[in-house]
Amino acid sequence: MKYKNVCYMSIIINSKQTNFMKKFFSMMATAMLVLSAIACTKEVQPKDLSEDSQTVSTMVNTKTFGSKTPIITVYVETNDVNPLNAGDYYMNGEAFVDVVILFAANIHVDSEGDPCLYLNDKLTPVLVDGAYETYVKPLQDKGIKVLLGVLGDWQHMGVASMDDEQAEKFAAILAYVVESYGLDGVDFDDEYANYDGTYTVTSDSFSNLIEETRTALGTSKMITVFGYGDYVSTIDSTAGAMLDYAWSNFAYYNTSMISGVTAARWAPCAYSFSNSYSTSRMKTYAGYAASNGYGAIMFFNLRPYSDVSPMSYFQAVATGAYSGTVTRSGGNRSRDAGSVTDGYTITYDMLP
Predict the structure, then answer these.
(1) For the chain, how are helix, strand and coil distributed in percent, rounded to 5?
(2) CA neighbor of 207 nearest in space, from 242, 180, 178
(3) pLDDT per position as a tens digit, 146-183
(4) Which of 77, 143, 224, 342 has the most Cβ atoms closer than 10 angstroms to its Cβ?
(5) How high is the pLDDT of residue 23?
(6) What is the pLDDT of residue 222?
(7) Which CATH number covers residue 106?
(8) Contact 183, 135 (CB under 8 A)
(9) What is the pLDDT of residue 66?
């Protein structure tokens, strides 16, 4: 078993990991010198942030949020949106958004037929090669948790088609990525896998993957689930109890929760900025969510302010749930991360 319980290992002070990274960077030094001049168009290697910044040791490692309940979660499409836009909205002097999900990394298949993690050409430069300081830490400094979205990619492998060994390996990959890139956890989304019988779909695969990921991440990192897809209903109560939060499929108010998820960890209200909603209804149902003890409200596909302003939707929820006022300072940052040709694939065999 590789990379189990990584959350209990400090990136800065764990001597074994530090020794590994010294060897790792020694081997990579020549390649990195070549890559440095053309990093925006070439593949880059994952870097442990302990070599880049002493601030990593101070990143938020608990699941404590601000005083407001329900929390606000926002998915950001990293292909064309700067994730820092999510931190430009405020209420009572604090960030209005509590969780940002970088959408999204993909489940691919390696040469051995096992699941691996693919970061596409636009997501790669948001995470690797020291990008933590630019795109993740500024959000965390505002008290925002930053998670990596994980979903299929038409390769017939997904959260519902991993056997026990594959789930263990994939969980180890996720733990490595979360720790290496300074993230606060992962979000599972059962979409685009294109299950076709190439890999056996089982009713316990999704649950087993959640359990393996919890073991690999430990208890200080987050695991969340978007309540969408054919197999989300297969999550059993044991796995559901291990989730920090789960979000309803787009709805004004859906109280039908994933098994094992309590109201305090469920988002009954979930809205896409691509869709049209009645703000008066949003206000009403946000009030219901708050008064009935529900733990979250989710928004999907945040755009730059000048493209699609989120203010009316944010304000409707803020009024209904908290009797608060949302303000904006920016929200119109351009996507400036560039791209990396072919993206980056992380396989189990790459792990320390």
Answers:
(1) 35, 20, 45
(2) 242
(3) 999 999 999 999 999 999 999 999 999 999 999 999 99
(4) 224
(5) 39
(6) 98
(7) 3.20.20.80
(8) no
(9) 72
Q: Is residue 169 part of a domain?
A: yes
- Residue written as token pair 């929200």: 331
**Cα–Cα distance, 224 to 247 (Å, whole number):** 8
Instruction: Examine the residue annotation and report whether 168 is marked as an active-site residue of this protein.
Output: no
Cβ neighbours of 308 (radius 10 Å): 12
Please tell me the total count of domains within the chain: 1
Q: Please say whether the beta carbons of 333 and 76 come within 8 A.
A: no
Cα–Cα distance for residue pair 229/162, rounded to 1 Å: 16
Name every residue whose Cβ is closer than 8 Å to that of residue 288 and which is 6 or more positions away in sequence: 253, 268
With tokens 């010198």, the residue in question is 33
In a domain, 1, yes or no: no
Phi-psi region of 229 (alpha: psi -120 to 50; beta: other; left: phi over 0): left
Whole-angstrom CA distances from 5 to 40, 133, 189, 296, 344 are 33, 24, 23, 27, 24
Residue 65 has what pLDDT?
75
Q: Give a yes or no: residue 132 inside a domain.
A: yes
The whole-number pLDDT of residue 320 equals 98
Cα–Cα nearest to 11, from 40, 52, 41 = 52
In single-letter form, the type of residue at position 132 comes to Y
295 is in which domain, residue-wise? 6-350
Q: What was the pLDDT predicted at 52?
A: 35
Of 129, 131, 136, 133, residue with least CA distance to 47? 129
pLDDT value of position 37: 35
User: In this predicted structure, what is the pLDDT of residue 230?
Assistant: 87
Residue 47: C-alpha distances to residues 52, 132, 180, 181, 271 (Å): 9, 10, 6, 7, 35
Whether 178 maps to a domain, the answer reads yes
Counting as low any pLDDT under 50, the low residues of the chain are 3-62
In 3D space, the residue among 311, 293, 310, 292 whose CA is nearest the CA of residue 302 turns out to be 310
pLDDT for position 4: 42
Mean of pLDDT over the chain: 87
| Residue 118: other Cβ atoms inside 10 A | 20
Per-residue confidence (pLDDT) for residue 73, from 0 to 100:
98
